[in-house]
């Protein structure tokens, strides 16, 4: 499913801790990925400390909204550093290769959605959890999931 590389890169940025670099990129992100405008607009008007505290509350306070694909216990294996290297990419070591922003960046840089498709069920679980929690981060997962084939409905 080519053509979504910019969206995946932008979504990866949205799902990282909202530091000053993120805030500086908001206008570009908003224009480059119209699917993420709702989130970008929210982030732009939310005070930095409040946005950072919300990120911690949503993604770091427990595993119910984990950005680590291995948490979702799917049949698909978690991405490995070897897979990244095989595509000419290196992981930074700061986060494991199954960290969703890293997987989104992988898709953006390689043009392949294989990892996202393999973990679609987990992405849907995360998306539903974020929607139920009432966080604007749900719109980021909505945009990513909209680019993928439907989730598996059973074995």
Automatic annotation (TrEMBL):
Bilayer-crossing regions: none
One GO term of the biological process aspect: nitrate assimilation
Xref: Gene3D superfamilies: TorD-like (1.10.3480.10)
InterPro entries to which the protein is assigned, alphabetical: DMSO/NO3_reduct_chaperone, NO3_reductase_chaperone_NarJ, TorD-like_sf
Domain of life of the organism encoding this protein: Bacteria
Keyword annotations from UniProtKB, A to Z: Nitrate assimilation
Gene Ontology terms for molecular function: metallochaperone activity; unfolded protein binding
Protein name (Swiss-Prot/TrEMBL): Nitrate reductase
Natural source organism: Streptomyces variegatus
């Amino acid at each position: 499913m080519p053509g979504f590389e910019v969206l995946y890169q932008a979504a990866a940025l949205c799902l990282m801790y909202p530091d000053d670099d993120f805030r500086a990129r908001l206008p570009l992100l908003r224009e480059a990925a119209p699917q993420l405008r709702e989130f970008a607009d929210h982030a732009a008007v939310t005070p930095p400390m409040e946005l950072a505290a919300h990120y911690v509350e949503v993604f770091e306070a427990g595993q119910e909204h984990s950005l680590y694909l291995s948490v979702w216990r799917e049949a698909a294996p978690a991405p490995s550093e070897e897979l990244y290297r095989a595509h000419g990419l290196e992981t930074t070591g700061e986060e494991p290769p199954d960290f969703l922003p890293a997987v989104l960046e992988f898709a953006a840089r390689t043009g392949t959605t294989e990892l996202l498709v393999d973990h679609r069920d987990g992405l849907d679980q995360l998306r539903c959890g974020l929607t139920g929690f009432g966080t604007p981060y749900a719109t980021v997962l909505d945009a990513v999931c909209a680019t993928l084939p439907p989730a598996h409905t059973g074995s």
